TrEMBL record:
<dbReference type="Pfam" id="PF12911">
    <property type="entry name" value="OppC_N"/>
</dbReference>
<feature type="domain" description="ABC transmembrane type-1">
    <location>
        <begin position="105"/>
        <end position="305"/>
    </location>
</feature>
<dbReference type="InterPro" id="IPR035906">
    <property type="entry name" value="MetI-like_sf"/>
</dbReference>
<keyword id="KW-1133">Transmembrane helix</keyword>
<feature type="transmembrane region" description="Helical">
    <location>
        <begin position="107"/>
        <end position="132"/>
    </location>
</feature>
<dbReference type="Pfam" id="PF00528">
    <property type="entry name" value="BPD_transp_1"/>
</dbReference>
<protein>
    <submittedName>
        <fullName>Peptide/nickel transport system permease protein</fullName>
    </submittedName>
</protein>
<dbReference type="InterPro" id="IPR025966">
    <property type="entry name" value="OppC_N"/>
</dbReference>
<feature type="transmembrane region" description="Helical">
    <location>
        <begin position="284"/>
        <end position="308"/>
    </location>
</feature>
<dbReference type="GO" id="GO:0005886">
    <property type="term" value="C:plasma membrane"/>
</dbReference>
<keyword id="KW-0813">Transport</keyword>
<keyword id="KW-0812">Transmembrane</keyword>
<keyword id="KW-1003">Cell membrane</keyword>
<feature type="transmembrane region" description="Helical">
    <location>
        <begin position="232"/>
        <end position="257"/>
    </location>
</feature>
<dbReference type="GO" id="GO:0055085">
    <property type="term" value="P:transmembrane transport"/>
</dbReference>
<dbReference type="InterPro" id="IPR050366">
    <property type="entry name" value="BP-dependent_transpt_permease"/>
</dbReference>
<keyword id="KW-0472">Membrane</keyword>
């Protein structure tokens, strides 16, 4: 039936791109206005962050381009001293808020994506081992996961961040702050991946294709990676999408508390922390625009995750 549907009138098979466009997955995406809108917002923000050096009017990380006389310029108004116009205004140091948002998103997205990849790699590997090997290996991994679940993820991230930063030499702390932040968020987020992969592995390891792989002499490591892993990836992709939004929020929270990205390379969380200091003095734009950007980014990624969960669920097809 599917073969008949995708064939052209001439009877030839359509191209791979056309088959992908006509698949159930893309059909579900094209007929979901929420998913299309969320995807559009995410792509606009990601492209803005990636091409920040080309789009941003100023480089907020370069002190040579800053002019303190431009400080506290309202949005859309020319500065009364320099005459320069700033779309979203400037902060207390004269940095263009639009430029700081673009550069701040680069750090937030880099930290979020890297932390999710670390958590996914660690969680998937431990989940596969726990589900396939079983025994004391499973008991140790899942008890560690249970203990970690008893604490809020943000507290675990703060603890790991504090320990890792404490053992880092003082002269390298600012340079290593981003990598320490990635390590802290990644190690606080692996449990969800491990629990889901373990449950799926317990189901898959008793199926016939796994038993056949054992009979032909496949090693346990090869069975886990070549046979079981591809069949447990659907829920992992959903968790990774939702975890990305949570990782970005966790990074913003840590930076807002002053234990995240360094002030020399502010992320969205750092910009929000700076903006809240001037919230009651009339400079509302310093807080509003970074906070709105963070909200739009996290909400759009969450909506994409919700759609992906429904699209990959065979019971809803």
């Amino acid at each position: 039936m599917a073969e008949t549907r995708v064939e052209t009138r001439a009877g030839a098979r359509p191209s791979r791109l056309r088959r992908a466009w006509q698949s159930d997955f893309t059909w579900s995406f094209r007929h979901s206005p929420v998913a299309v809108a969320a995807f559009g917002v995410v792509m606009i923000l990601i492209l803005g962050a990636v091409f920040a050096p080309l789009i941003a009017p100023h480089n907020p990380f370069n002190p040579a381009t800053l002019n303190l006389m431009n400080g506290f310029t309202p949005p859309g108004q020319a500065n009364e001293f320099t005459g320069e116009l700033f779309l979203l205004g400037t902060d207390d140091q004269g940095r263009d808020v639009f430029s700081t948002i673009l550069y701040g998103m680069r750090i937030s997205l880099f930290v979020g994506v890297s932390a999710v990849l670390l958590a996914m790699l660690l969680g998937v590997m431990l989940g596969l081992m726990a589900g396939y090997v079983g025994g004391w290996t499973e008991s140790i991994i899942m008890r560690v996961a249970d203990v970690q679940l008893t604490f809020p993820a943000i507290l675990v991230a703060m603890l790991i961040f504090g320990i890792a930063k404490g053992i880092t030499p003082p002269e390298y702390r600012n340079e290593m702050a981003i990598w320490v932040l990635i390590l802290a968020i990644g190690l606080s987020d692996w449990v969800q991946f491990a629990r889901v992969v373990r449950g799926a592995t317990l189901v898959e390891k008793n199926k016939e294709y796994v038993q056949a792989a054992k009979l032909i002499g496949r090693s346990p490591f090869a069975i886990m990676l070549r046979h079981i892993l591809p069949n447990v990836l659907n829920p992992v992709l959903v968790i990774a999408t939702i975890s990305l939004a949570l990782a970005i929020i966790a990074e913003a929270t840590l930076s807002f508390l002053g234990v995240g990205a360094p002030p020399t390379k502010p992320s969205l969380g750092t910009l929000i922390r700076i903006g809240q200091e001037f919230m009651f003095s009339g400079e509302w734009w310093i807080l509003l625009f970074p906070a709105t950007t963070l909200l739009a980014l996290a909400l759009s990624i969450n909506l994409m995750g919700d759609w992906l969960r429904d699209a990959l669920n065979p019971r809803l097809r």
